[in-house]
Known about the structure:
The complex is a heterodimer.
Chain A: E1 14-20, E2 28-35, E3 38-43, E4 48-52, E5 57-58, E6 67-70, E7 76-79, H1 82-88, H2 93-102, H3 104-135, H4 139-156, E8 159-160, H5 165-178, E9 189-194, E10 202-204, E11 209-213, H6 214-219, H7 222-237, H8 240-258, H9 264-299, H10 305-314, H11 323-329, H12 337-345
Helix pairs in contact in A: 2-3, 3-8, 5-7, 7-9, 7-10, 8-9, 10-12
Chain B: E1 13-17, H1 21-37, H2 43-56, E2 58-60, E3 63-67, H3 71-94, H4 100-129, E4 131-133, E5 136-140, H5 144-160, H6 166-179, E6 181-183, E7 186-190, H7 194-230, H8 243-276, E8 279-281, E9 284-288, H9 292-308, H10 314-326, E10 329-332, H11 336-340, H12 345-352, H13 357-363
Antiparallel strand pairs in B: 1-2, 1-10, 2-3, 3-4, 4-5, 5-6, 6-7, 7-8, 8-9, 9-10
Amino acid sequence: MPANKPPFDPPLVSVEVDYWDGLHSQFQKATLAREADVIALTLASGEIERFFTRDIRVDPPLAKLPREVGLPRGARLRCRDTEAFARLFPQNGWHGIHFFESRTRTALLAMLVMAAVLAATWKWGIPLAADVATSNTPAEVSRLLESRTLETLDQLFTKPTTLSLQEKNRVEGLFRRLGPHLHSPRPMTLIYRNGGALGANAMALPNGTILVTDAMARKADDIALLGVLAHEAGHVEGNHPIKALWQRVGLSLLWAGLVGDATQLGDISSGLVMTLTENGYGRGMEHEADVRALELLTTLGYSGKPLADLLMKLAPPPKKKNFGAWLLHWFDNHPDTADRAEFLRKTHPIPKH
Amino acid sequence: MQDGANGDMAPATPFTFTATGAEYFRIWIVNTALSLVTLGFYTPWALVRKRQYFYGNTHFRNETFSFLGRPVPILIGYLMVLGVTAVFQASSILAKSNKIWYAVFGGALLAWVLLIPYLVRKSIQFRTSTAQWNGLRFGHRATLGQSYGLFLWRALLVYISFGFYLPAWDLRRAALLFGGLKWGNLTFAFKAKLKDYWVAYLILWGVSAMAITIFFGAAFAVLMVNVFMEKGAKGADSKSLDPAQMVFLALFMAGYLVLIFIISALWKSLLFKTNWNAVTAGPLTFACKLSVPKFMLRSAKWYSLTVLTLGFYRPWAQVEQTRMLLESLTISGDESEITQAIATALAEQNAMGGAVGEVAVENAGFEVGF
């Protein structure tokens, strides 16, 4: 078979097309036919142009737009008779995509599938991936993250502690009582800061350090403070700060996929969605830490009531449950205080480890 | 179809846009689903499909546009941005433990700044050479030297002058972007005066500053009244916000975002109008009769609905915005140039006797999202 002159038998199917030669801004009417891997274009002048199918580029079908074909040397054809055109060129994967795009029912199905994939990824995929990533995070990284977090806190919120040695010793003493019952991947240490806007608070940092604010050390009585420390120890045991970080990474990737061609619109609304979904994870981890705190308190022979009372005092729930409060709860990464307090006040059986 | 024979007297021909929100929604939802399932790797293919749909529904003189771009160059652009971001992130974190990473970070930053003009030119070439109308491709004449002059040296001047050079820089940028366009053998020109840009920028700066001042002033007043009324009713050590304060805070943030979006709509529409009113192509003159206030109002609608529907209104918003912008454009003048335009490739092709067209599209570059 000579390469430059493909053989051509009379075609079985042909379609009317508009043909641009790639050099002029005026199309001419032509007839397109196909035989195996060769297409033939019969121009109005009677001239016939032939191309191998491997040298042409057939654009996939899209909405109700005419089909287009890119030819060598910038020439192009357009076919408005999409049905006849479809008989000339075999179906491929794009036809499946076009099928889904063309009908409301299938597009909605795609949407449902997408919603299901999103929900499953959010509910199981990201937490699982975050767990795996967390247990494989080198200690060096946790250490770095902790020093960065602490630096940021010191720059924005906290000042050096004003606690006396006596006050510190009381907290240390309480924390030592938890010691024998903890099973942490890393040693836990306490540090103190004047919390400023953080108020009476305590937080677990990425490498196992627990930050206690002066106000917390002074305000909370022994058993409540023991509960607070147990709660934070629960965060450290579960490696929650690192896990939260990985969850954030996972969510960013998920939303990057969702609003891939992001514009300002996408950016802002996805920021909103990010906050909402991330807080869902936060509430889960707070509950986990509460469960652990209650376990530790029960093991030491105390109830969760003092911790519950402290919570209610520090973050009192709104008196009326109105729409505004309900709306805002989605923007909060801690569970509802009243629910937490109710959980902590209940007596639970002592777990066995 | 008008055969405008007598130059300036020929009627203005409008652009029309026939995409519909419902139709694009279906394309968008399938694109989005596939992008998600493939962890984002489908995104370039999705972008090609989106552009093919938008171009294919843009009409001028009964002819539609075509998008000829392939996904792979777009993928390369994405991967490049991803790689650079990773280097920046990693080196800025690692610099905490080892000072040598500061050097890596600095080196990467310098390399990136030096590369930007090159990448911008590549992207412009990709965007223009992948657009086709009536059988001929668009193209761009910007040289590498022009790109470096504008996006490196003159961009530096904008910073040094604390922004006072911005109107002049933006004029030069528009002159390069629009004036460098070509379609077939028809070359575009850009004829704006510096005065027009200063007028536009004084409006933009003035309105933005005023709107933000009024907004913060009002918010501050509400806050002061609130604090004054609440004083004494609550203990001094009450650290957490009550629901009323939090609702106020949420409304404040939402209001601020809407304000920012309306202001950015003002910038976008005013500059769009200023730019297109200065574009000519041979004997043809572009005109833009976009109503800036109307565009701002519509933008507020598009933005609010998109947020309220958690992003699902975006396809409609994009179609409506594109329609509003495109259909504000008209071209008047002797249109015989259009029918007679021939590909610039013709001369080259005759000389070289080879395949210029399709190869040129493939080699036109890659796209980096600027």
